[in-house]
Every structure is written in C-alpha cells, then in structure tokens.
Amino acid sequence: MTRITLVRGDITEQHADAIVNAANSSLMGGGGVDGAIHRRGGPEILAECRALRAAKLGRGLATGAAVATTAGRLPARWVIHTVGPVYSRAEDRSALLASCYRESLRVADDLGASTVAFPAVSAGIYGWPMDDAARIAVETVHGTPSAVTEARFVLFEARAYIAFEAAVAAL
Ligand code: ADP
C-alpha cells in the first residue's frame, strides 16, 4: 500500500529514491520543475536524456509516458521524466494525466524505488486547473498498485498544497 504524503517545497531538494519531472516530449529541458531539475541537477541529466532520445525515443517521449535517468547532483537517485498533457477545454485529456502518474509508478517499480516525489504535473505552464489536477493525481496514485511505499506530492505554491489536501481528504 502506497502512503500518500504532502509537503510544501522544492522538488529538487527532496531526499527520495526518485523525483518526477514534469518534462516536455523533447526531454531537452524547459521551464518550471523541468528547468529547476536540470539547473540544480547539472548537465549529466540532460546528457542522459540526449542518449535516450538517440537510442529509442527519436520522436520524443509521448504524452502520458515516463522514462528514468539518474539524478546528477540532486539528492534523489533517479529522475523519472513524464510528459503531462497541455490542458484543453475542448477535449478531455484526464486519461493522459492519470497515465503520467501510473507510468511513473511503473518506472519506479522497475527501478526498485520505494520513495517517489511528484510535482503537480500539468498544473503550471500546461495550464491544468489545480483542483482537478490534484484530484486526478491523488486518485490515480491511490488506485495504482505498486511497491512504492511513499508517494510524496511536493507542492510549490500554497494553493497547490490546499488543493492536494482537499483531494486527499476526499479519498
Ligand atoms: P507543466 O509544464 O507540466 O505544467 P510546470 O513545471 O510548469 O509543469 O508546473 C507544474 C507545477 O509545479 C506547478 O504547480 C508549479 O508551480 C510547480 N513547480 C514549479 N517549480 C517547482 C519546483 N522546483 N518544485 C516543485 N514544484 C514546482
């Protein structure tokens, strides 16, 4: 059974076996969580992302998929990169957002990671409304069987923490 915990803070500072990156499909870095991870983690992570692109992800990482690299200078051992969907009012992309969490847990199991820190995937630059992003995140992690003992949501902003608290309370 995976225990869900919530903390306010910066995901790059987390001591966990793996931290999840809200990446984009290029895996070549970006803003938000992605920028912070590459900045603090150093060039090793980007070099591994390049190698992954060259070896098996020529067209990039698909939305909803996840893949791991080591974590460079970060305290975590691994970074699990996942690509959240851009929010759309016209189209329901919730299944893709849920897939990010499910696939990240699957990759964590493959790695043997027991503690995994997640950001609020898609709830920043990708525009997903925070309450809905929190509900999908919490329900999906709660409903996905895995060997991960702790899934820690690391929330940068107060409003994100409040949304995740409400989502956990509603389980
Ligand atoms: P996306 O492109 O998937 O929307 P973002 O990185 O833009 O991803 O934002 C996802 C969430 O992560 C937002 O709520 C944002 O405020 C938050 N965030 C940004 N930087 C950090 C960080 N260093 N640690 C944890 N959360 C962060």
From TrEMBL:
<protein>
    <submittedName>
        <fullName>O-acetyl-ADP-ribose deacetylase</fullName>
    </submittedName>
</protein>
<feature type="domain" description="Macro">
    <location>
        <begin position="1"/>
        <end position="171"/>
    </location>
</feature>
<dbReference type="Pfam" id="PF01661">
    <property type="entry name" value="Macro"/>
</dbReference>
<dbReference type="InterPro" id="IPR002589">
    <property type="entry name" value="Macro_dom"/>
</dbReference>
<dbReference type="InterPro" id="IPR043472">
    <property type="entry name" value="Macro_dom-like"/>
</dbReference>
